[in-house]
Amino acid sequence: MSDIKKKVNIDDKLFLNTYIADTASHLIIKDEGVCANCVEKNCTKFCPAGVYQYKDYKIVVGFEGCLECGACRIACPHDNIDWNYPRGGFGVQFRLA
Ligand code: SF4
Ligand code: SF4
């Protein structure tokens, strides 16, 4: 198979990244009650890094693995995510291979 036809494995790509995690999240759920009543739960579907998990009737935000792509900010139909970049010196470092 030629290189151009090779499938990209997202897990392999994510494995190359390194992360410097802050102690506080840069992704804040504005109102947990809105999430509890949110039918779509788009944040659990669109995030390429699986940062949002719905557990025990709450959205859990694993901000440490965020790729800073901004998709969740756009995908939340209730504008319920206070989205910021991590503080300087923190966040993802991409490695291309
Ligand atoms: S899509 Fe928005 S409102 Fe719905 S669960 Fe996710 S963060 Fe909460
Ligand atoms: S910015 Fe991208 S990677 Fe980070 S939580 Fe939102 S969708 Fe996931």
Structure commentary:
With 97 residues, the protein is of the alpha+beta class. 22% of the residues lie in helices and 21% in strands. It has a domain of 63 residues: Alpha-Beta Plaits (2-Layer Sandwich), CATH 3.30.70. The protein is globular and about 45 Å long. Bound molecules: iron/sulfur cluster (2 copies). One iron/sulfur cluster binds next to helix 4.
Topology:
Layout: H1 10-16, E1 18-20, E2 27-29, H2 32-36, H3 43-46, E3 52-55, E4 58-61, H4 71-75, E5 81-83, E6 91-93
Antiparallel strand pairs: 1-6, 2-5, 3-4
The protein binds iron/sulfur cluster (2 copies).
One iron/sulfur cluster is lined by residues 29, 34-35, 38, 40-43, 59, 76, 78, 80-81.
Give the class-level CATH name of one domain.
Answer: Alpha Beta
Oligomer: single chain
Instruction: Tell me the structural class.
Output: alpha+beta
Mean pLDDT: 91
Q: Could you tell me the CATH topology label of one domain.
A: Alpha-Beta Plaits
